[in-house]
Amino acid sequence: xxxxxxxxxxxxxxxxxxxxxxxxxxxxxxxxxxxxxxxxxxxxxxxxxxxxxxxxxxxxxxxxxxxxxxxxxxxxxxxxxxxxxxxxxxxxxxxxxxxxxxxxxxxxxxxxxxxxxxxxxxxxxxxxxxxxxxxxxxxxxxxxxxxxxxxxxxxxxxxxxxxxxxxxxxxxxxxxxxxxxxxxxxxxxxxxxxxxxxxxxxxxxxxxxxxxxxxxxxxxxxxxxxxxxxxxxxxxxxxxxxxxxxxxxxxxxxxxxxxxxxxxxxxxxxxxxxxxxxxxxxxxxxxxxxxxxxxxxxxxxxxxxxxxxxxxxxxxxxxxxxxxxxxxxxxxxxxxxxxxxxxxxxxxxxxxxxxxxxxxxxxxxxxxxxxxxxxxxxxxxxxxxxxxxxxxxxxxxxxxxxxxxxxxxxxxxxx
Length: 415
Prior knowledge:
Blueprint: H1 2-16, H2 20-25, H3 55-65, H4 69-107, H5 113-140, H6 144-147, H7 150-162, H8 175-181, H9 186-224, H10 230-261, H11 264-278, H12 287-295, H13 303-337, H14 340-345, H15 355-377, H16 380-383
């Protein structure tokens, strides 16, 4: 039974892109977030799901609507009340699910898991009402002119809440947020404004279609109980994957349009950042790159040391770029051929024959070889100034993690 629960949790996580089933079945898991029907926000420190709307997001919406100070004070007060109610609902759900787990540990009675489903359904409905109520109250304080801009707030909220559902590489990238973060000049931002306006509309339509697929899959899975229909589950995976591919491909299509508009220097930076955000596990800042970058700024380098560090950096970037491109292709191939039956046959363990394994090993070896060579070049006093090596997580490609600046074509911290 424990194996069944673990397998079902993984299946739900795959189909729903980290949805409620995963969070309920595994303590400390991550929940998906949804606007108007999702399971709430990410997990907080206490294990509660965070509210779907945050102060940062509401400030963004206030700017879009050009709220005055009095309106902003009102909406922040509404947010505080909403957040308290959402946290209480999440806490109650967590306590109930913990009691159900404890009961199963004591009785080994599988029928208790039906109550888990009921708890999840009740919580989803409560959060849907709270989310909808907050946004309705927010909309009620707007002037007639501001109300005309409300659809743009709904689209922004849908991106904020549901882009993270994606698990295909490139599906989670929000080009609007990405352009806002990049320090492009005003002329470049003006040039891409028209493309982003079309992107906002097209992306919102695809997100709604995809989210509907995910929510239906979640309900199907939760209604399945112990009767694991593997074919039905795989069908849900395939349908979800097709919906995710449409979002991913739309992102790639609009990224190419934006790239074509930007001037050469900004185009290269944009393309690198898009690749890094599409494959954060692949194009992340590595320990070797941090060491090379830091050492180049040492004031006491000799001329020969400087020249050798430049040569090592160029060689490292070239080799790492080649490995990263191959690894990104392998990640996408694994996403395209994922099969639940094969996963269950392995007991949920990684595929030992996955080509990513060898590529990741090669990249670790490249990093060790480069770092050892650099340390051999430096004096003992200089070595003490190198940044400490952080743990490089080489986990599964579907694991969610942020990416640092990549190297060799994928990140912003390149030399």
